[in-house]
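Data availability (excerpt). The following record was deposited with the supplementary files.
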Amino acid sequence: MAQIKVYGRRDVWADRRRDVSDLLHECLESAWRLPPGKRFHRFLLLDPEDLVCPERGERYLIVEILCFTGRSDDAKRDLIRTLYARMAPALGLAPGDLEITIIDTPKVNWGIRGVPADELALPYPTEI
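Predicted structure:
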């Protein structure tokens, strides 16, 4: 399970949400073996004055990945490297204009389909 929050400027990214979402999910499928249909992406697009980030370009994107605890440090590094290798060039981003944060929490902290997530049997790996 992974939920993604994408922060960026509305005037730059509003028309490119699908491109960003497709690239993000391709990376998650490749690095973490998420199924094609498991896409949970939220775009929190802001007016220029609401995203204060000196020394960053107008195309600056922040990607937060919320997931279950269980992925190894190597799996997290692999996802980060995959995101930089695929997303930055495809979206025309300088490496400094893409920031990624992985926030992992125990399954018991998630409520999904009416139960705590540690009681779910998922058809894909969350411990890699």
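Summary of structural features: The chain has a mean pLDDT of 91.
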